[in-house]
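Handout, section B. The chain below has 263 residues.
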Amino acid sequence: MPKSKPILVYNDFEINTSSHSWKSLSIPKHTTFYHEYCPYCGVKCVIDEADSFTFSGQHDENVAVCPRCGWWSWKVLTSELDLSSASSARAILKKFAVNSDLAPLIELSSYLEKHNEKIGEIAPKKMEELTAKIYKNVLGHSIEFCSYGHKDHGIDIICIEAGLPQKIAIQVKRHKNPIELGYIHQLCGAMIDARIKKGIFVTSGRYRSGCYQTVKSLEKAGIEIDLVDGNKFLDFLGCLNSKKTKQINIPFWGVITLPNVKL
């Protein structure tokens, strides 16, 4: 098993195929792309099989998918009369880029849970999307993005609590430096303009002490703002990861559902 276990994302695939007479076909030679253990994680793959028989021959097909990183391999052996063909394919993987706008959320949340120190490097857009996914998938809120394509004026996400008509204004900041008081004032002003009394500020870092004092004083005016720092955000990601189901769409095969495996 490899010493390091990187989180990887499959990007493309390669395939080899050939046809031979049945007697000269060397099965191991033409299924070298197929592995029952992930070559990257060392984890036993989830195996799915599809075998069919006809009057003239046989069709054996197998797919193996790593439940941890999503790497997959596939093979098929078809025999008809005295002719046979063998094909195999495997995913081509690229290293996971935590700061990419294209990073899949399901992989990003898993990566951050295992590499907490990287939270300050994720793309701001992905920080918003992860926050929205937490409040939607974990808490069951309805979500509306406010910042896509235009200035958000202090509110990135508006969500409606499950079973309640109350709106919640969410501002998300991916910051390595502590959040200053001015950001809290900006969210408060945006909430007043939108006539929303409950808000949440989410950051990848931490807050200045004055932020907590201001939030307490705002409660007297009927405005409630919850401050979520980087550590609390990572705790929320753990709840999100415990609920998710990973599905991989594999060429030649279709969609396969994988178990949630923590290693």
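Note. The mean pLDDT is 80. Compare this with the example in section A.
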